[in-house]
Design brief:
32% of the residues lie in helices and 16% in strands. It has 380 residues and is an alpha/beta fold. It has two domains: 31-262, Rossmann fold (3-Layer(aba) Sandwich), CATH 3.40.50.720; 275-372, 3-Layer(aba) Sandwich (Oxidized Rhodanese, domain 1). An eight-stranded mixed β-sheet has the order 3-2-1-4-5-6-7-8, sandwiched between helices. The radius of gyration is 24 Å and the shape is elongated.
Length: 380
């Protein structure tokens, strides 16, 4: 892997570092790194690895760019909205560094394709935003002998580590079992500080480069915890669990499994409501026009009202509902609103279980209202 005159000039600041030099830059050029997830974490990882001269990057994501991504997914611009993420990402990365190669994998990573996709890369960077994919990436890395450069984010906090290396722990050593479905909300439900994935993603890019170059002390056996509000870092020591089902002395998981079923995604059924317990936003809008408007109970959080709200709603956040039942009139029909209709369905069941009878869940929540009734409302 020789370096051209142009590449020598481009990477000159690397070449000046004794720990990298020409030989190290050649290692970077020879390296093949797969990025799973081209969202908040994948964006900074891809930009920095491309800029650093990692010779071949594989991008895995089946999603398209959404306007809500632009607050944190710095690889994309407004002109990319609606485009496949891997296609938009490839264009940006080659514009940044035309000396590298980009592989597009515009597919959803699954047990059926993971090992085949992983086979052609040296290092896997996990930028997934869901538990089934994290466990899939981990198990596929262990089974294929590839290091897993892990990162995750939540609201104002992030974590990073390097899993699945020789004698090091894997993700399952830290989290043997996934959390119950719905316990940990994703970014679209809980929000995330826009700069947070930048910090964690740069850490992942750093770890990937250290592994390629064979320098420094990688985050093997260490979990780095970052708190953006406190601007603090903590470190937890990790060790390989000899009883781990995947990387232990006597593993019981020797092939990839159904990770959605393992994480309870398939078994987590939506709350079943009867037809007369639901109302469409169009039906509700017709009621709003009447002389006696309907009573609407909004079970979102107070800060969500600053984004979008309907007038004359009673706000009781879902978590406060059991303690504030006395504020509701059992004799009137209560129309329950949330962002998408999920929390409102839960609220309906809470009220139903304590004897309320006149209850209607607003299907699709305020997002449906923004789509079908008032497109001036902000969607989030």
């Amino acid at each position: 892997m020789t370096l051209s005159k142009t590449e020598l000039a481009r990477y000159s600041r690397h070449l000046l570092l004794p720990d990298i030099g020409v030989a190290g830059q050649q290692k970077l050029k020879k390296a093949r790194v797969l990025l799973v997830g081209m969202g908040g974490l994948g964006s900074p990882v891809a930009l920095y690895l491309a800029a650093a001269g990692v010779g071949r990057l594989g991008l895995v994501d089946d999603d398209v760019v959404d306007e809500s991504n632009l607050q944190r997914q710095i690889l994309y611009t407004a002109a990319d909205v609606g485009k496949p993420k891997v296609t938009a990402a490839k264009a940006k990365l080659l514009a940044l560094n035309p000396h590298i190669e980009i592989d597009e994998h515009s597919v959803r990573l699954s047990a059926a394709n993971a090992l085949e996709i992983f086979a052609d890369y040296h290092i896997i960077v996990d930028g997934a935003d869901n538990f089934p994919t994290r466990y899939l990436v981990n198990d596929a890395c262990v089974l294929s002998g590839k290091p897993n450069v892990y990162g995750s984010i939540f609201k104002f906090e992030g974590q990073a580590s390097v899993f699945a290396t020789k004698n090091g722990p894997c993700y399952r050593c830290l989290y043997p079992e996934p959390p119950p479905p719905g316990l940990v909300p994703n970014c679209s439900e809980s929000g995330v500080l826009g700069v947070l994935p930048g910090n964690v993603g740069v850490t992942q890019a750093t770890e990937a480069m250290k592994l390629i170059l064979g320098i420094g002390e990688p985050l093997i056996g260490r979990l780095l915890l970052y708190d953006a509000l406190a601007m603090s870092y903590r470190e937890l020591k990790l060790s390989r669990d000899p009883a781990c089902r995947v990387c232990g002395d006597q593993p019981t998981v020797t092939e990839l499994i159904d990770y959605e079923q393992f994480c309870g995604v398939k078994t987590a059924k939506p709350i079943a409501l009867s037809a007369n317990q639901e109302i469409s936003v169009r039906e509700l809008h017709a009621k709003v026009q009447q002389a006696q408007p309907p009573f609407i109970l909004d079970v979102r959080e107070p800060h969500e009202l600053n984004i979008a709200q309907l007038p004359d709603c009673k706000l009781i956040p879902l978590g406060d509902l059991p303690e504030r039942l006395a504020e509701l009139d059992r004799e009137i029909e209560i129309h329950i609103l949330c962002r998408s209709g999920v929390r409102s369905a839960k609220a309906l069941k809470i009220l139903e279980n304590v004897g309320f009878q006149k209850l209607r869940n607003i299907k699709g929540g305020i997002l449906a209202w923004a789509d079908e009734i008032d497109n001036s409302l902000t969607k989030y």
